[in-house]
Amino acid sequence: MDIKSRIDYLRKEIKRHNDLYYDKNNPEIADSDYDALVKELEKLEDDNPLFADANSPVKKVSGGVSSTFAAVKHSVPMLSLDNTYSQEEVAQWRARLLKTVSALQFIAEPKIDGLSVALTYINGVLATAATRGDGETGEDITQNVKTIKDIPQKFAIKNPPSFFELRGEVYMSNKDFQDINKNIEAAEGDKFSNPRNAAAGSLRQKDPRITAERKLRFFVHSFGKIEGLSSELLLQKTAGKSKFPFKSHSDFLQYCLQCGFLLQNDIAVLNSYDEIAQYIETMTVKRETLPYEIDGLVIKVNSQELQSQLGYTNKSPRWAIAYKFAAKQAATTLNKIRVQVGRTGIITPSAVLEPVRLAGVTISHATLHNFEEIERLDINEGDLVLIERAGDVIPKIVKVSKKNSIGCFKPPQKCPSCNCEIIKENDDEVAYRCVNPECPAQFKRHLLHFVGRNAMDIEGFGQAVIDQLLKRNKLKALSDIYALKYDDLIDLELFKDKKAANLLNAINESKKQPLTRLLFALGIRHIGEKVSEIIAKRFETIENIFNASIDDFTKINEVGEILAVSLKEFFERPEVKRTIDSLKNAGVNTKQPKEQKAGAQFENKIFVLTGELSKYSRDEASAIIKSLGGKTSSSVSKKTDYVLAGANPGSKLNKAKESGVKILDEAEFEKLINEQ
Ligand code: IVH
Fold first, then answer.
1. Which ligand 1 atom is nearest residue 110's CA?
2. 123-157 exposure pattern, b = at least 16 Cβ within 10 A, e = fewer
3. Looking at the structure, do residues 610 and 570 belong to the same domain, yes or no?
């Protein structure tokens, strides 16, 4: 390929990967492979100025602005960071800087694998929040960002600056990422492939209530424009001598801490190259123990004056560099492609690998998502494949390293469990399904789901118990769970008197579960925990759900056409009616108790605000209440559910006390938000 064609190819390919990463949240290649393409194009463009093009993807910040959100212009462009995978290049970067400036002090921080967000505070109150977008203009995500509890709605300091555009990273912790994926898996939805994708998918939601549920977090790392910083701070930190708002990046971070932001734990001030090298070494190991994903370290010149002397290229500051960790990848043999049947009949492939060590753990399985993924990767049993661990999850196959087989693995023609026909419901669907309602594999998965912690929650009813009871023909229908007797259990492996009694007790207790759980336990396609809860609360009894039309379902905000059709089809099936009848006969509750459960404290609740809150203005508190489904009113009446009382409350507080309305202080209010 000649140079021009290679340049064209690289530009096209990089743009395609930018779109996959920033807009579709679905990257196809490892970060390190992407960075290698960028480096190659940068070098070719530098060496061949004849082919220069201002629109080249390496000449500007990547990322786009969609039409879903309003556009927000950044006060100062949001740039990217120059990056390297080699310590030697970090040393070269430092040496280069030392040619321009004298002694250098650095500050180093973990590079959070999240999404860059710009927050604008006017007089210390959060006014707008925007994504990075194309660097000049981002998307307005203010309402969503207001649900993130690490982000103060109001600064905790007196005399806040009149204008402050702060920047930082919105991210999701590994634990929250795993919890979300577990819920998605239970609803047989498409799981997020790593915490960054989960954070991106959660942040760019049209409905802030969904963002609020996702427990996003935030660390501040830089800033855009600042105006009207109190002279107190200028005097204290810079002795009033310079035009820089902060003397150093360390001072900026300390100021943010005082404003109410959280700082990362592993920020270090480094005075020599040896200290930088030591930091890299320490953090490369420590990275594995952090509760969130980092993809590298950012090393910054600490002094703001020197930062300004060093300046910027059109893409990134010269005063900072990102040292990125090598991807957690390894090559191994794909021994087998296992095909499993899920609870709703979806047939999913997964990879059984020759065990290999990767980032400290032995890996023997990888996800394959669906058969389209197998086709895209063009893999078959026996191939040498490259695997990558993204987040703290089961690894995925990135590509074939060496093709040892002929052709690509084909989806099965028949269900591997019951040998019945399998179908691909429509051309857009990537999933194949076994539609035999009596398929034993589906039934077994369904049993497991039914007794699971988030469903009927029968403790002690695990896979081993189910396997043995199935073998002994004791479980032919869901309701058989409730017909089990002491004699059936005492026979099971490792079962003694107490264990059998406990399990019987847990089975009995589960009969009292509210309709929300029973509905989720029924394992209806596309219906996860949240939707089950909404539907159970709306319809109150299983009979009402049986009688509901598609229209009745779609009247609910959270229920679209697909969910409504899935519900209707499910409740029209004769065997479902039989199952519910026998569960009812066994004494299982099919009603939703009236009292409020945790998780819907704001839904249609009327709040009255009185007094001054420390963290929120009245308007902000009202906006939060509304974004979570509640309402506000200016006076206390019989209809009032809560009075939110701050300092120096007015007569509304007395009225609330007299009429027995629940009174919340600011801490209780925040607790209520967090329980959402
Ligand atoms: S400083 C001019 N510090 O990495 C940009 N960025 O690849 C100055 N990032 O756009 C940013 N952790 O979104 C900085 N500790 C950190 C960071 C960090 C993550 C992100 C940031 C930036 C991207 C560049």
1. 15
2. ebbbebbbbbbbbebbbbbbbbbbbbbbbbbbbeb
3. no
